[in-house]
Design goal:
517 residues, mainly alpha, two-stranded antiparallel ribbon, 20 helices
């Protein structure tokens, strides 16, 4: 009951004319930018992050929550109409959504995606309000060894699970850790990897890293594969759903929510796994399995709900533990730090009004997004007709302005270009971006907790082990790293010799290959 009382108090701060205006501006800008091709929620948040820095913390949080959820909503539009997912978690939505659009059912696909996102976002935010205080109470009892082990688990999970190979994942993580080490050692006061440059003594701001890797890297990548004309956009009528569509969608919405929220709350859980699980579940449970691969509405409703529920789940470890579980949460963590806040167990104790205002604003923003997306879907679709050269020229302009606004130093523009080249190289060689961002943000924190653990134990490595939580984390890390070997041994024991046949919905499946193409 205390949680509900705090949530009502949060609504009291949100439901004022000025705060509602900031929420409306946030969801509108977030959706409009998120709709544009190739721009997922993470890039939307990174690009618009500097917009919120001049506001009061409460107003900035309300606007930022709208941008966060707006970017999630916008990603489904480009996936369905252009077959161009903004990020990997939208791939599954595009599989059936674009087939529905080509069959003349774009309106129904957009409607089930928008309503499913609303249902999943509302339930996920409610679960966030119920779960997070308990997670905070648990987190307060943890010591330095436990935090160090949890951060190592985030490193291992993000690097081993994402990307086309574990080697690429760990390579991206090492690049991020190297960037995070730049600056002055907080223990010894020595400069590290600054090359005698005074501007690097304070390290590289995470906002500059995020905008460079996402926005500039994406713009350079598109420029290298530029199509001069805009992609063909399928006409959209006013989104609506018939009785049959409602009957086929409401169960996938709930099942997708059940898949998405727990995975979002896990370190490195992300939205890729629950969206694929949701798609496979709906394919197995459907009464019309022959429609899958040709435009089944269940294949849009379930994964899109899982995607948005996962987004709500990512806020649990981010606010309670200070751990980002995906790229969007990592940039949100940087935003909170930019406002002088310290995400973690003490955030709710020191700033309860801000935390509950953020949670309440998620409900408000989610409702506004549904009201915006259903009538304005045809208008959002027209944004997709902007020629790519003009679109990415604008992105580079706003990215440069945002990076310069952080410290007002021209040197940051050089860093932005250098990081953009790194982002281009990541895409060129197939390295995932999330491990790099997590390495930049959590690397210094993991170093601090690891050193603190060793200082408490007098330099004995046993000080890194700590209590049962650390043991569980190390066991999961070992399982994650050794799982391919264990899987092969089990396969040979069953007489299969090696990897078994695919599930049909993995990276090599025809549906996903078509989407990624």
């Amino acid at each position: 009951m205390d949680n509900f009382a705090n949530l009502i108090d949060g609504f009291g701060h949100v439901l004022t004319p000025m705060n509602l205006l900031f929420a409306l501006i946030g969801v509108t800008i977030g959706t409009a930018v998120g709709v544009l091709p190739g721009i997922g929620p993470a890039m939307t948040v990174a690009l618009l992050l500097p917009v919120t820095y001049g506001l009061e913390p409460t107003q900035a949080l309300i606007m930022f929550a709208g941008i966060f959820y707006g970017g999630m909503y916008g990603g489904s539009t480009t996936s369905i109409l252009l077959n161009t997912p903004g990020e990997s978690s939208s791939v599954v939505t595009a599989i059936e959504g674009n087939k529905m659009a080509k069959a003349g059912r774009a309106a129904q696909a957009l409607a089930t995606a928008a309503i499913g996102s609303f249902v999943a976002g509302t339930i996920g935010t409610l679960l966030l309000a119920l779960v997070m205080p308990q997670v905070v109470k648990f987190a307060v009892s943890l010591g330095a060894p436990e935090y160090f082990a949890i951060m190592l688990l985030a490193f291992a999970g993000a690097s081993a699970v994402l990307g086309s190979s574990r080697i690429r994942g760990f390579a991206a993580l090492l690049i991020g850790l190297a960037i995070g080490l730049i600056g002055i050692d907080k223990v010894t006061g020595q400069q590290r990897m600054t090359f005698g440059t005074a501007q690097l003594a304070d390290g590289i701001d995470v906002v500059v890293v995020a905008v460079g890797i996402f926005a500039v890297g994406e713009a350079l990548w598109v420029a290298a594969h530029l199509r001069r004309k805009a992609a063909g956009v399928i006409p959209v009528g006013r989104p609506w759903m018939g009785r049959d569509d409602w009957g086929r969608s409401w169960k996938p919405w709930l099942r997708g929510t059940a898949f998405g929220f727990p995975f979002g709350a896990l370190p490195a859980g992300g939205a890729e796994i629950p969206t694929f699980l949701s798609y496979m579940t709906e394919r197995k449970l459907s009464k019309r399995p022959e429609e899958f691969g040709k435009g089944a509405i269940e294949g849009v409703a379930g994964p899109e709900a899982a995607n948005n529920a996962s987004a709500a789940g990512t806020l649990v470890p981010m606010l309670a533990l200070g751990l980002p579980t995906n790229a969007t949460a990592a940039i949100m963590l940087a935003a909170l730090q930019g406002w002088g806040l310290e995400p973690g167990p003490l955030l709710m104790e020191k700033q309860p009004v801000l935390v509950w205002t953020l949670i309440a604003s998620l409900f408000v923003g989610n409702t506004m997004l549904l009201l915006l997306n259903l009538p304005l879907a045809p208008a959002w679709a027209k944004l997709l007709q902007i020629p790519r050269p003009y679109l990415y020229a604008g992105i580079l302009f706003f990215a440069s302005m945002g990076a310069y606004a952080v410290n007002a130093q021209p040197f940051d523009l050089l860093l932005l270009l250098a990081l953009g080249m790194v982002g281009f190289a990541l895409r060129r060689f197939g390295l995932p971006v999330l491990p790099l961002i997590i390495g930049v943000i959590l690397g210094p924190l993991a170093e601090l907790q690891g050193r603190r653990s060793l200082q408490l134990s007098g330099g004995d490595l046993s000080g890194l082990v700590g209590g049962p939580v650390a043991w569980v984390c190390y066991a999961i890390i070992a399982l994650v790293l050794l799982w391919p070997l264990v899987g092969r041994l089990i396969g040979r024991g069953r007489g299969r010799g090696g990897d078994g046949p695919g599930t049909g919905v993995g990276p090599s499946s025809p549906e996903t290959t078509e989407v990624m193409a």
